[in-house]
What does this fold into?
Amino acid sequence: MTTRYAKIAMTLALAAFALLTVFNNITDYHSNFNFVHHVLSMDTTFPDNAARYRAIDQPWAWHGAYWLIILGEALTAGLLGYGALELWQARKTPSVVFAQAKRCAIIGLTVGFFVWFFGFMVVGGEWFLMWQSEIWNGQDAAFRSYMALLGVLIFLNQPDTELD
It folds into this structure.
């Protein structure tokens, strides 16, 4: 049971992380929005970089991208929270039933991985060259987030046989 409780607790902890991220992004909209604005406008990347044609200078696009991030984080929080509940309800069941209860948590971890890895590392980091900015570079924070999600995803997918 210890392994199952650990899987439930870790899933719940990541749900809380994603939920607090959503809360912070909504309640402190302006300062967190500034991050998206500066990354998408590429105004703090190297001044002579040839990729500045990728910059987006439309405020509606900055807001849209920011709300897409918030939606992805909220979806992650909801799926992980519901997934933790399903795992809790299945904690005393045979391993095949517990494995089926992992579905929402696995989807939530995958959505979160896409938000923080694809959104921040691929799109923000490489397409909009966020790595060039000394001020608006969120790659370290994104790395910590998607590695935590990935670690729990790997751990959650380990077989559970202790009740069989």
User: Anything to note?
Assistant: The CA atoms of residues 9 and 117 lie 23 Å apart. The two ends are 11 Å apart (CA to CA).
